[in-house]
Amino acid sequence: MDHSIAYLMEYSSDTINTKVIRSKFTHFSKEQSLEKSEHLMHNKEQQQQWAYYHELGEDIKKFDEVFLFGPTDAKAELFNILKKDHHFDKMKIEVSQSYNMTENQRHAFVKAHFLN
């Protein structure tokens, strides 16, 4: 995951189902906000980033174990948000740094993590 896209991969019995969640804060919306003011752009970015993390949190509530990985700090930011929410107190959440991966590489990374 990163600040603009997350791949939610549900791993069960050697199959992986993937759902893609994208942040609403795009390069286009950033340019539109910047035209008005930098302050407005930062406020909009924060609101849409919070909405993105909230959507991710809602989707992962059903799991007992979550593995967050990616090349940016987005995974740590999401982890910190989840840790403050008591809905996730009993959930096992692990975080790992990784590089940008293809879909096959992401699937192999997830399988390797959960098989070990």
TrEMBL record:
It comes from the Bacteria. This is Uncharacterized protein. It comes from Panacibacter ginsenosidivorans.
